[in-house]
Amino acid sequence: MGDTDADEVVVQVLSAEEDDEQDVRQLTAALRSELLRLDVEDVEPVDAADVPEGAKGLETIEGLLRVTGIALSGLSGVLGALFQWARRTERSVTIAVGDKSLTLSSVTPEQQAELIEGFLATLKA
Fold first, then answer.
1. Residue 76: is it exposed, middle or buried by C-beta count within 10 angstroms (0-12/13-18/19+)?
2. Cα–Cα distances in Å, from 66 out to 10, 110, 121?
3. Is the pLDDT of residue 61 over 80?
């Protein structure tokens, strides 16, 4: 894949058992605000009509965001921000790039670094 743009990255906030639809919307809006501060072109909510057919690892529409204009070199920063958000909110997030996906949750910084490195290696392969 090299250092080209990841055409599209889809991020899904995975709700906790106690979350209702409003909670998921608020969490998703907060995450969108954080992602917009990074070196990305745009972050937009995804509706049912926009979900790519056969998208793997994406269970439902609620909590989905499409991140565009990320250079592969900037994806590591996006992943780091997602891990920090997951740790802070005690929620999990799934990120999908093409047919590859990774679920991020509250892990140690060492585990986070390993997961990011491994995921980026699969994208470059």
1. middle
2. 5, 27, 22
3. no
Q: For residue 56, is pLDDT > 70?
A: no
Please give the structure tokens belonging to residue 54.
């056969």
Cβ within 8 Å of residue 59, ≥6 positions away? 12, 14
* CA–CA dist 69, 90 (Å, integer): 27
Q: Tokens at residue 18, please?
A: 């106690």
Lowest-pLDDT choice from 39-53, 81-95, 110-124: 39-53
Question: What is the average pLDDT score of the chain?
Answer: 79
